[in-house]
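User: Quick sanity check before I run a bigger batch. Here is a single chain. Can you write out its predicted 3D structure?
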Amino acid sequence: MIESVFLGLQQLGDPMVWVALVGGSILGIILGAIPGIGPGVGIALLLPVTYTMDPLAGITLLMGLYAAGWYGGAIPAITINTPGTGVNVLTTYDGYPMASKGEPQRALSLAYASSFVGGVFAVFVLMVAAWPIASLSRHLTSIDLGMAALLAMVLVVVAHRGSELASFALLGAGLFISTIGLETAYGSARYTFGTTWMLAGVPLISVILGLFALGQAFTLIFSDRQIDGNEPEMNRGLLGGFTEVFRYPKTLFRSAGFGVGMGVLPGVGEFLAQFFAYTTARASSKTPELFGKGAPEGIIASETANNAVPPAALVPLLALGIPGESFTAMMLTVFIIHGVDPGPTLFQENKEFVAGLYMTLLVMNVVIVALLLAGTRWIAKLSSIPDRLLGVIILCLALIGSYSTNYRLTDTLIAIGFGVLGFALRRAKIPMVPIILGLVLGPIMERYFRQGIGAAGGDLTVFVSRPTSLVFVILIVVLIVTAIRNAFKGSKKGSADVSG
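Assistant: Done. Predicted structure follows.
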């Protein structure tokens, strides 16, 4: 641990790491504070930029956007009752009522302090847990890792309660798209229809820019959100929450635990972590009647849980090379571009990178809080920017980014096609995470299964003859059966309600 600290401090000596750290934090706060944008758009737009940067600087830039977005999303949630990002919805329940009572600075201070504790707690969990998991994963075979990737896909589908069928369809679409192009083992063309521009496959950056950036741009252009010009009075008393949160230690650390647990599990993410943390805090509170009316415990539970997720989501990515949701899937592409192999060998071959990542994640939370304490009054004004103006700006940047990656018009046309799909999915409230994970995890799973089945001489019983693989198979079957049973119960209940 001490060696990692010294190695990490050495990595912080690189000025580009500091530029990425501060720049990513500022952009994340800004994009999080503008309702309807969120860090996903920023990560999609900046992904091509990170390909030209060193791995640590590139990942730091994206993580700064990712983590700071949830911090910034609390500002409009508290001040104008409009969550800056989807994971700040529950913050409005108690943040806005507290602000309406004349205490916006107290609500913001609680949100910042809770986010800080959740983020730092999760970084320490990452530092403690990632290396042992990676050490254990060295004993896993290709079949085991392939089944782990398949388990991650199943978890993504079943985590979207009520949208399992749509999630499964989009996961399948992502898997199909990942097969387009030259197949690496034998060099045969798959689904290219005789064209040359499809031999390289569907560019991941075009898919990401289309779904997240262009899809969001179209949504903003057609938005009818009304902007309230009223701004709450705020003074500079934003430090009180850093002592007040520790008056509720059970809520604080229990919520951080929910965030870490949900972050490690593929496909679960911030919203479920927030939901469990909030409902548990209300159930165990001595004053549950205050929830929804400005209870500090409600803000603490919501913000602690959602900010503990980003560092925790790096655990399966770093230890196993398996992303759990769309943002870490995007980060995996940065590893791949730079030839850094996340997984069992990362902690031996790239100790400096891992130590630098730990240190930047810790420093990042301090930088984000410092920026918020200094600039909340001005950041809050960003929520009044018209949606259509933001949509046009994002549209232009996304089109430029999709073309400039390979300087091919076909990449831009692909991005536009996925932008229309992303817009439709948003309007239908269908999750987009499965298609990205299918696209990223598809080649990983195919490679592992090809290696494992080849090593076993084509014997498919290898999936159940190895203990680890058998455990994964059992978990997959249990998850699928449980999801089908819950869906069947839900349909029967719905039919009973209609008949009643």
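The longest strand covers residues 181-182.

User: Great, the batch can go ahead then.
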